[in-house]
Each structure stands twice: as structure tokens, then as C-alpha cells.
Specification:
The chain is mainly α. It is about 85% helix and about 0% strand.
Length: about 325
Amino acid sequence: MKNKKIFLANSLLLLALLLFIQVPVWAIKIFGLVRPISENVSLLLSGSASVVVLGGIALLYCLITKRKFKNVMVIKKISIKQIYLTIFVAFGTYIFAMGINSISFKLFPVIIKDSTQISNLLSGSTTLLGLLVVVLLPAFFEEIFFRGIFLDAYDGVNKKIKYFIITSIFAAFHGNIMQIIYVMFLGFILLMVREYTGSIVGSMTLHAANNAISFILSKVLMNYMNNGIESSALKSAQEANISIASVLIQATIFFLVGGAIIYTNLRKLKEYKESEGRAKVINQEENNEYLKYAARDEEYMVIGGETSSGKVVRLTVYIPLAIYFVSIAVIVVSKY
């Protein structure tokens, strides 16, 4: 069953990549949109693609494995304390990311182009649409896809390997150098929060809070500067010209402050979970769900031709994953 689910999830990932490339193209043709497309329309296309592709594939995964959506995604309520601890983690993550970005601008000046494009998109779009597409939609649909489907599919795989694969998939999906570096880190923190809260609602909360902080501060900063894109690009260029020693000192401060906030609140989340006996409850619920759906899972295994020998992970199940990473590499290289 493990091999079967891994192959299914990896294949659906490849399908998601193909659809994400094609859906906007189809939408432009269907609605007769003329280039250059406005920032609002571009955001709307991006948000629609997330809903259709990520949401649709998540439902497809549940249908194929014959399990309920809430069980696959592990959708459970979290407490108020867990919510505010997660929001503190989001603040720490944002500060830590400032250190990552400062080093990235120094080592990879080419990402100034990415920064300019993102600033262009944010400054030219309405705040309400930005909050919907940048903050809310990714927090739900990216979580059910990356921390829902893949955590379920890779259940039983070594934790370090599983986390590395999922964070790599998540980072690569964003498709540009600037975000790949930062999102790799964010993806790991999202997995930790998902683990310590015992619910995908925890990682959704962190994802939404992190995106909201970034979006709101970016909007405020651009409005304050009154120059939008040009100011952002100029600031990025200036950061790239700072000496490496200055960049490292600046980044170290961000890492220490952000890391301390992240560590402190992640530890509190873990302690809260343990003190409330959440680990025992979750394991019991998962065992109950396993027994409940054992017959269906067995049927699914027989149909797929999987036997007890499936306990040995076969490299063939990772072929779609390899194709995915090669495709992303080609897209990124061709972009720059």
C-alpha cells in the first residue's frame, strides 16, 4: 500500500505541474484576454489555478484511495493557544526569512528580477484580491496538497527523508530561485507545526499568517515609498552591492532573533501537545481509522497488484518525482 500511494501522489504531482502550466493558457484563450495582462487578472488566474488544480487533485487522491477527505488531510480543531503560538512562529519565520533573502540577494543577484516581478504584482493589484489569492487560497489549497496528500502518501517513510522530499517538492513548485531558497525553509517549519499541532489546520494557520505578514508589510512599504516597483528594485540592487561581511552580520542578527522566536514557540507547541496527551489521542484515532478503512485499502492494494513485498520501497515509484524535478529545473533555467 505504501508504494502504491507514493507512486500515486508522485504521479498526481506531475499532473499538477502540467495543469498549472496549461490552465492559465486555456483561460486566456477561452476569455480572449489580451497581453499584457493586468496584475489583478494575473492574480485571479493564479488563484483560480490553485483552486482547480490543487483542490481537484486532492479530491481525486481521496477518491482513488477511497477514503474521506478529512481523514486523509487530518482536519481537526486546534486550541486558541495553539493558534497564537503558531502566529508567533509565523513572525519568527518572517524575520528568519529576511536573513535568507539578504544572503540570497548577495549570492544570486539574478533574483532581483524575481523581486521586481513580485513587487509589480503586489503593487498593481487590489488589497482585497491580494489577501484572497496571496494569503487565504495558498494557506488552504497548498496545505491540503503538500502537507495533506504527501504526508499521507509518505506515511511510514523515514521522517528525515519524508520531510526532505516534501519540502523540496513544495519549494520547487514555486518555480523561481528567490522563492525556492526561502520556501524550502518555510516548508520545513510548516511540517513541524503540522506535526506539533496534530492537524493540518495548524500548518494552514502558519501559512496564512506568514503570507499575511509578508503581504501587508510589502503593501505598506510600497505605499510609503510612493514609488512601488522602482523603489523595491533599487533596494534589492543596493542590497546586492553591500559587502559580504555586512550581509553576513545582518543575516546573523535576523537568524538569531527569528530562530529564537521559532524555537521557543515550536517547543511550546510540542510541550502543549504532550501535556494534553494529544499524541496518544491522535494515534488511537489513526488506528481506528485504519481498522475502519482496512478492507477498502486491501481492495485497493489487490486492484493495484501490490502484495506484502510492497514493504520494500521500489525506486520505480519515484520516476514521476524525478521527471517533476527535471521539468522544474528546465523551467527555471529557461526563465533566466
